[in-house]
């Protein structure tokens, strides 16, 4: 996790972690999308789910509900500030737990989870190829990856927005859906909104 993009990303998100009020507002605005994504994971009681780039933990309550008390929910984030905020959230939502780590080198054994979830996170991950390698390693064969994310519009407005997003939220991957399709072949778009710029998508992990 030594490169400049990753270091910058951690700094950006450590700073964002100080704005809990803002994050709680984002959680409220995106709750129904997160719920849709939680259902798309197809997990049930006793299953194990990974929340990649969990941020302050806005999805942890939904994931914890989905797997119940006998399940496992592991949030991973590389920002110390985000991990602090998410750990508080996890305490109130067992069985959720949070660890600090790089999504490109997950501290998990092979086939450790039934499904992985990434909300507004893959677009902010500088080395997305390595992250998807790790998803394929830690999700058991037949498991799923569900992604909530978005892309900037095409054209001049899009490039201007991408530059702003890059500064604000370390936006690195302008078309996550295309990356997922290239990697997993068949990807189901479960829900798409804002004229297709935001989506919930599910990929089956072989
Ligand atoms: C836009 S936030 C989204 C947070 C949360 N998933 C949500 O839906 O609110 C992106 C998160 O991904 C984390 N992140 C980015 N790259 C990462 C990496 N390589 N490893 C772990 N976490 C990463 C950031 O620290 C940040 O908390």
Describe this structure in words.
It comes from Halorubrum miltondacostae. It holds the Pfam family Methyltransf_11. The chain has 206 residues and is an alpha/beta fold. It has eight helices and seven strands, in the order αααβαβαββαβααββ. It has helices at residues 4-16, 20-29, 31-40, 60-67, 80-91, 128-138, 155-169, 176-184, and strands spanning 48-52, 72-77, 96-100, 113-119, 139-150, 187-193, 198-204. Strands 3-2-1-4-5-7-6 form a seven-stranded mixed sheet. The mean pLDDT is 94. Bound molecules: S-adenosylmethionine. The site of S-adenosylmethionine has 21 residues, from helix 1 and strand 2.
Write down the CATH class. Alpha Beta
Small molecules bound in the structure, each named once: S-adenosylmethionine
Task: Note the beta-strand portion.
Answer: 15-25%
Spans where pLDDT lies below 50 across 5 or more residues: none
Q: Into which percent range does the helicity of residues fall?
A: 40-55%
* Span between termini: 27 Å
CATH fold group: Rossmann fold
> Looking across the biggest beta sheet, what order are the strands in?
3-2-1-4-5-7-6
Number of DSSP E strands: 7
Series of H and E elements: HHHEHEHEEHEHHEE
Looking at CATH, the homologous superfamily is Vaccinia Virus protein VP39
What are the defining features of this structure?
alpha/beta; methyltransferase; globular; Rossmann fold; 206 residues; 8 helices; methyltransferase activity; binds S-adenosylmethionine; 24% strand; 7-stranded mixed β-sheet; transferase; 7 strands; Erg6_SMT_methyltransf
């Amino acid at each position: 996790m030594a490169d400049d993009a990753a270091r910058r990303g951690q700094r950006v998100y450590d700073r964002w972690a100080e704005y809990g009020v803002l994050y709680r507002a984002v959680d409220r605005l995106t709750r129904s999308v997160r719920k849709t994504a939680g259902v798309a994971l197809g997990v049930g009681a006793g299953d194990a789910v990974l929340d990649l780039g969990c941020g302050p933990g806005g999805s942890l309550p939904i994931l914890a509900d989905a797997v119940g008390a006998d399940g496992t929910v592991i949030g991973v984030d590389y920002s110390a500030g985000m991990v602090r905020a998410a750990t508080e959230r996890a305490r109130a939502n067992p069985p959720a737990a949070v660890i600090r780590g790089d999504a490109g080198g997950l501290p998990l054994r092979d086939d450790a989870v039934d499904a992985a979830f990434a909300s507004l996170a893959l677009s902010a991950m500088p080395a997305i190829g390595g992250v998807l390698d790790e998803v394929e390693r830690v999700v058991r064969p037949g498991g799923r990856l569900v992604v909530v994310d978005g892309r900037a519009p095409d054209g001049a407005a899009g490039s201007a927005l991408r530059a702003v997003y890059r500064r604000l939220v370390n936006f690195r991957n302008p078309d996550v859906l295309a990356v997922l399709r290239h990697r997993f072949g068949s990807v189901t778009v479960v829900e798409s909104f804002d004229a297709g710029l935001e989506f919930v998508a599910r990929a089956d992990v072989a």
